[in-house]
């Protein structure tokens, strides 16, 4: 069994910065939910407003936007680490695009118009690039394809 050596490049330093940036985006989204709870009178531990509540749509849009970010954090973390193994600069750009997508998604969704969340769909380009880079890194580590070397 042979080992693989990967040399850390200075661009690998973007990886922890992007993780911290995502942490702040998540905190910002959570604070938006907290403000919406106060504004619309939705008490803890109630996750979503009941449909009969006059402010249900407005609150639920904010809450759903935050939940979407929470659901995507594990995927983001796995991809930012694996995609950056060999191409940290490209991975950093892709991850930054994904984070910008989260911000625009949350801003649009929390407006109360669920369709505006789609303004953040460009973030999926960052996700796609991260997926491709992660597969490339896996294939290079497995040393199974000449095309990726």
From TrEMBL:
Stretches of the chain forming a coiled coil according to its record: none
Keyword Membrane: yes
EC identifiers of the protein: 4.4.1.20
GO CC, alphabetical: endoplasmic reticulum; mitochondrial outer membrane; nuclear envelope
InterPro entries referenced in this protein's UniProt entry, alphabetically: MAPEG, MAPEG-like_dom_sf, Membr-assoc_MAPEG
Single biological process term from Gene Ontology: lipid metabolic process
Keywords for this protein: Lipid metabolism, Lipoprotein, Lyase, Membrane, Mitochondrion, Mitochondrion outer membrane, Oxidoreductase, Palmitate, Transferase, Transmembrane, Transmembrane helix
Source domain of life: Eukaryota
Membrane topology summary: Multi-pass membrane protein
Pfam families per UniProt: MAPEG
Pathway terms, separated by semicolons: Lipid metabolism; leukotriene C4 biosynthesis; Lipid metabolism; arachidonate metabolism
Gene3D superfamilies in alphabetical order: Membrane associated eicosanoid/glutathione metabolism-like domain (1.20.120.550)
Residues passing through the membrane, by range: 12-29, 92-109, 121-142
GO molecular function, one term: glutathione transferase activity
Protein name (record): Glutathione S-transferase 3, mitochondrial
Species this chain originates from: Phytophthora infestans (Potato late blight agent)
């Amino acid at each position: 069994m042979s080992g693989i050596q990967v040399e850390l490049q200075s661009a690998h330093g973007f990886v922890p910065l992007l993780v911290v940036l995502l942490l702040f985006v998540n905190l910002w989204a959570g604070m938006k939910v907290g403000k919406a709870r106060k504004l619309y009178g939705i008490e803890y531990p109630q996750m979503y407003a009941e449909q009969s509540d006059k402010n249900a749509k407005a609150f639920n849009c904010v809450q759903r936007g935050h939940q979407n970010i929470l659901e995507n954090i594990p995927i983001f973390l796995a991809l930012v680490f694996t995609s950056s193994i060999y191409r940290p600069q490209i991975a950093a750009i892709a991850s930054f695009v994904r984070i910008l997508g989260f911000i625009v998604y949350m801003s649009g969704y929390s407006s109360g118009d669920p369709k505006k969340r789609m303004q953040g769909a460009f973030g999926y380009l960052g996700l796609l690039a991260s997926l491709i880079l992660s597969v490339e890194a896996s294939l290079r580590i497995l040393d199974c394809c000449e095309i990726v070397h």
